[in-house]
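dumping this here so i dont lose it again. seq + smiles for 2-acetamido-2-deoxy-beta-D-glucopyranose
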Amino acid sequence: MAAARGLLWVVCLLRVALATVYFQEEFLDGERWRNRWVPSTNDSQFGHFRLSSGKFYGHKEKDKGLQTTQNGRFYAISARFKPFSNKGKTLVIQYTVKHEQKMDCGGGYVKVFPSDVDQKNLNGKSQYYIMFGPDICGFDIKKIHVILYFKNQYHSNKKSIRCKVDAFTHLYTLILRPDLTYDVKVDGQSIESGSIEYDWHLTSLKKMEKSSAESKDWDQATDSKTQDWEKHFLDASASKPSDWNSELDGDWSGPMLQKPPYQDGLKPEGIDKDVWLHQKMRNTNYLTEYDLSEFENIGAIGLELWQVRSGTIFDNFLITDDEEYAENFGKATWGETKGPEREMDAIQAKEEIRKALEEEEEEELLAGKFNARQNFFNQFHRQDEL
Ligand SMILES: *[C@@H]1O[C@H](CO)[C@@H](O)[C@H](O)[C@H]1NC(C)=O
């Protein structure tokens, strides 16, 4: 028993030891963050950040993060780390964000940049690899962006993912895996996941690559039969996205069904199912190698956004290759803050109501005194008139 537990410990330690943390920022060393974060001077009107845990928090010091301080401004700031490639590895991007000002319109997302980004000149046109996080504007926009840069173009997630709109700290996590699956988590819970290929409609890009690398031992006749057969695997219920551009994106076809319709008794005609499967596997291998979420030279993370009403706090940034490490880091940061933060907010709200009531009473009291004097005055006058 003890031995088993000991072994478990070793395994745990090994796991932690295996995690690569590319970047981690909790703003725990006072004003020294200014040595790590570079504000852009591209526009003298860019808003300023300060370190703050806000009006309510779980822990006054630990919950300090970068807070936007000026209304109606663009913001641009970034921090560097040792460049790396996520090729063949999981990539986790995580941070916390708190819109304690009750966000009306503004960005709460992060951007991950290639290492050659010009930090001092960072602006809306600076090319990034990944944009991830909430964006709120009025009643219409309450979404989590996941934008991937691929083949010189930005690709937005086609599934819409809703973000949190309240005033509390929330934990946002994006996981991109080398098997081309992804996960978007809010507060540690997965709220969207699936295939990077389908959920960004990148299938056509892959097809382009496929046709240029067509195999020779797969003759044309078989190929057309295969295509007929493959049609059964397409999701007929899917509709063409409204922003599909045939010129850019190629001919649209529905995404592949996750479960092929074998149960309908469908049989491939004129082709050898094994050969088809073999070919399919080969393509799959080939396509997986051709990674849709592979970034060669990841080297900076930044906030480049617009806010109408300021006050958002960004904290607990993490970039790692280890999902479990990220989960534990989330628990140790957001997990510790969420409860006490809400308690403090509730106490403050009660206090505000008490004060408002007191003020109201005071006003009534004053108004009462005034009325009394008025009455006395009237009486006096009336007496005088008599
Ligand atoms: C801001 O950045 C743009 C694009 O990188 C550049 O053309 C422009 O000169 C920069 N402006 C300043 C004031 O540095």
